[in-house]
Design a protein that fits this description.
- By secondary structure, this protein is an all-alpha fold.
- It contains 5 helices and no strands.
- Helix 4 packs antiparallel against helix 5 (124-158).
- The two termini are 19 Å apart.
- The relative contact order is 0.20.
- Keywords: Membrane, Monooxygenase, Oxidoreductase, Transmembrane, Transmembrane helix.
- It is found in: Membrane.
- One of its GO terms (molecular function) is monooxygenase activity.
- Its main location: membrane.
Length: 161
Amino acid sequence: MSTAVSASALLSGSFLSGAMACMSIVTVPVLLDTIPTAPQLFQSWARLYHYGHILGPTGALGTLGLWMYAAAQRRAAEKSWRAFALAGVMTISIVPFTIFVMVPTNNELFRLKALGSELGNVTLANGRNVVTKWAWMHLARSALPLIGTIIGAFAVFGDRA
């Protein structure tokens, strides 16, 4: 059972990291290249955030659960388990990263979206700068589940060597 759980954790952590990175690497550049006005850019970013907000925390929590279950199984079998737990902690750390690093930028983007066509002197270039800043932070955040997956992979495959 431990092998199936560990394999599931590796797959879900990899998928989560890749999906998150894709938002910054593919989706945001498409938005920046194709959206002609700042209000449309902020509206599109808000939809991207909405779907990411569904995927990210849920995927991280599920992956954390898998890693912790694998760690508990290994601990009960008196095998090394800390790397499995650390993999889970690294994955769920997207939540505090969001709170402590990204919330100010998220709030600014939501504020700009709420202004709609009343943006005043906020230009498309200004909007692109804020969305680009968000994309770089989001890309950094997407590395956290990847780091968890790498730690977990070393633990899983190192145990077989």
